[in-house]
Amino acid sequence: MDLILLGFQTLASPMVLMMLLLGVFAGMVVGSIPGINDNIAFAVFIPFSFSMPPEQALALMVGVYCAAATGGAIPAIVIKVPGTASSLLTAEDGNAMARKGLAGRALSIAITSSVVGGVLSSIVLLLFAPSLAKVALKFGYVENFALAILGLSSVVGLLRGNIIKGAIAALIGLLVATIGFSPMTGAARYTFDSVNLIEGIPFVPLLVGLFGIAAMLDLKAELLKSRAENAAPDALPTIGSLKLPRGLVRRLAPVWGASAAIGNMIGMLPGAGMLMAIFLAYNQAAGRFRRLFAGKPGEPEWGEGAPEGIAAPEAANNAVTASSMVPLLSLGIPGNSTSALFIGALALHGMVPGPLLFTQHGNIAWMIIVAFLAANIVLWPVAWVVLRTVSQYVFSIRKEAMVGVIALLCLMGAYSDGGNLFNMWVAVGAGLVAYVMRLANIPLGPAILGLVLGPQLETSLHNSLTISQGNWGVFFDVAEHPISAGMMFASALLWILPALLGLRERGRAKKEDQQT
């Protein structure tokens, strides 16, 4: 308890608090710009922190990290262009709700979910960091492979009647992930002798194209349809009321708790990251929605404005932020790419993450931990300020002009990731592919998950089979690798249960036909 109080005492300095507040505000603003993800935002602010005292610099970094994912929900809901990768699922139900005149409610759900997930994760980090670090140590190559399989299997619960197309989309994502140098042999694969593809398809421009450019094409198609029918195009959604009804809060409370738990578990595992967490949380929320609310009067279809579809990914992505610091601060192992940048921030000030950080720089280590809690609390009022600012400028733009604005933001975001014109062509090409996939009713989510998990899947599989001398049974070895065996069993269930449920529904329908 004395150490926790030491952390609060260090954070209580006016300049440290001001840097934390500045980081939260900057993270929200940067996160709301399509294409500028949390990695870029974090990397941009590291040089500014060099001349600051370490406690001020790291408070700034914590604020940016916590707020960037939340800011990405704003354009995802309003114009269906995710500001960050972690808000890609929010765009589906969030934008659908906004189109029904409930943009304010959708944004309020997103922000509240982010704050709840972040606060719960910060409390877990504050109280259980040493214990949770021991769990992270149990994950080796075998467990990471099983975790990737579980992540890919989680999309099955989202697809239901579209499993074949979803599996095809996931395979496409996995194949695209193989472009570039092989992590095992170093050989170039599918680069077509282009130096721009040596390191693979750049992820940020790809994501900008799949969502941003595709959304721009959707909007342009809508405008052309309205012009052909001599009808005025629908106006951009206005924010409206940000108040959440008490009944909705009670309804979403279990979703927040479950999604925050998923985010905590995934966040502390090296390499898992936010995307796996939001897909697992989204899948869990989808099952709960279909079980309790689907088909009831006034309830939308899943993916068409369900509040759980916004609450689950937003609670999960912010829960990842604090929990990803568990292995980093305790063991020196980053939980994801953004938390890995914390190593650089600490190194700039002569500190090395790991057990010695708590003995040599105890006040800084505990200040970082309590700063996550403070940042997520401060996030609430800052988000309202940013929202009202956005409403004055973004929502006043006509749809005709918004097509150009979206295209400009997307191309700028793609170009900013490395300053390469090739990235802009990647964004345009990915946007065209995503638009065709939507016309063909092929889900995009499995393809994104395949892209993200592909490298982890390949590396973990190769290393696991090398260690086990080619024994595939190592993934199901209950004695030596119980965690892997459990996750592989859960993955099998995710594939089997939809088929069993489909058979039961067909049997029930046949029985009802016979009775009539």
Automatic annotation (TrEMBL):
Span of domain DUF112: 17-449
Keyword entries, A-Z: Membrane, Transmembrane, Transmembrane helix
Top-level taxon of the source organism: Bacteria
Keyword Endoplasmic reticulum (UniProt): no
Pfam families assigned to the protein according to its UniProt record, in alphabetical order: TctA
Segments passing through the bilayer: 15-36, 57-79, 106-129, 141-160, 166-185, 197-217, 255-282, 364-387, 399-416, 485-503
Protein name, as recorded: Tripartite tricarboxylate transporter permease
Species: Ponticoccus litoralis
